[in-house]
Amino acid sequence: MKLQLNYYFAVVQRVLGLLLMIFSTSMLVPMILGLAYGDGEADAFGVGFLITLFTGVLLWLPVRHVRRELKIRDGFLVVVLFWMVLSLFGAVPLYLATRPDIGITDAVFESVSGLTTTGATILTGLDTLPHAVLFWRQLLHWMGGMGIIVLAVAVLPMLGVGGMQLYRAETPGPIKDSKLTPRIRETAKALWYLYLSLTAFCALVFWIAGMSGFDAISHAFSAIATGGFSNHDLSLGHHDSAVIELAAIIAMIVGSVSFSMHFMVWRSANPLTYWRDAETRTFLIMVLGATALATLVLMVAGTYVSLPSAFIKSMFQVVSIGTTTGFTTTDYSLWPSFLPMFLLLGSFVGGCAGSTTGGMKVVRFILLSKQGMREISRLIHPNAEIPIKISGKVIPDRVIQAVWGFFAVYITVFVVMFLILLATGLNELTAFSAVAASINNLGPGLGEVSSNMAGIPAIAKWVLCMAMLLGRLEVFTLLVILSPAFWRR
């Protein structure tokens, strides 16, 4: 039994070592930027690269000859361990850097926030930070957006490691077993080629709209990944450009639609495919409806006197908060009436399954609403067989049950973390919005965390790190390894 257990962990250890070695190479880019711009911190990333690479080699070397196809349990364990370990090693250069001068808690918080595409920050004075540090934050977003595991799925088969279980454990959404191509490696490569192409196009648009080359690439990383980090304390408001805001709106919406849907549209060369998909259509209708409501409230309250200005500001914040990106052009927490809480609650929905967004995903809310309507119909017709359909396809009851289970666990975890934050001394609004902004991978909250989370207690930051990881891994992926059944062979 002990031999079997050691063999089991050897396979996981080998994969983890390989993934860490792959991840270490990403630190070379900010190191080179630090040398090119000459504003410091190249050494911090060089040391971070060596530490990460050396650790990966130490893990891989003793078990390099162990070969076995990954099972579903292996996939969950590798994904959970990798996101936790990755967050710790992503914090190394931030901790070693002299600017910003932060402790281990803040460094880990910033790293977790970047990789999970949350966008909550503890940093201030972003405009004066070294280019290497700024780019690293954006690069963490970009790698975490599609999921570095999905990239690894395209690479690991060449190294003798199967990838299907990693793909299933990493990809968000309730229905995720379908592959775009016959081979899972080709599926991962197709998604990453698409992701890279959209990022490049977004960077080009930002540059044409007036951003510098560095800002354009950085914000393209953040927008496509629906992350929210910016190189400026005022976020996109720093540029004060309606054209840039419109470009960001489009980029955030693109990142919020399932990348499988993007692939299908590209393959069919028919943009109407978006509208025919029930989840995408519902998402777009929700965005337009929320924008219309926010515009009306802002105009009635006199916050903006010009209808075009009110509409653009409303749409930007609705898209940014609703897609869990977290860019800002104005302090939405100061908006009148119920709007700040309305937008924050919208982040619980998030974008489409299979996108880079956080939240519970639109398809789950569609299924919850349809199930609610079915229960009402059953009160009138108790013996009726009423199937639930999406886009003309009948959804199995097993999926509906899984969605209800996910919803229940999500809310339970939220309440527990909310109570813990209250116990640290935060007020109700700050604690509620901080947990919501973290577990939904949103970023900015309300109250004391409307601009950054630097002022909250250290214990609260660690709790929010766990919330961000739970949100990124859609709760069950992380909680499943805590189940006794998971460890029974």
TrEMBL record:
Q: How does it sit in the membrane?
A: Multi-pass membrane protein
Establish whether keyword Calcium is in the entry: no
Could you confirm whether the keyword Transmembrane helix appears in this record? Answer: yes
Q: Where in the cell is it found?
A: Cell inner membrane
- Give TM regions: 12-38, 44-63, 75-96, 139-159, 190-209, 242-263, 283-307, 341-367, 399-423, 459-487
Supply the alphabetized keyword list. Answer: Cell inner membrane, Cell membrane, Ion transport, Membrane, Potassium, Potassium transport, Transmembrane, Transmembrane helix, Transport
- What InterPro entries does the record point to? Cat_transpt, TrkH
What is its biological role? Low-affinity potassium transport system. Interacts with Trk system potassium uptake protein TrkA.
The record's comment on protein family reads:
Belongs to the TrkH potassium transport family.
Stated name of the protein: Trk system potassium uptake protein
* Native organism taxonomy: Bacteria, Pseudomonadati, Pseudomonadota, Gammaproteobacteria, Salinisphaerales
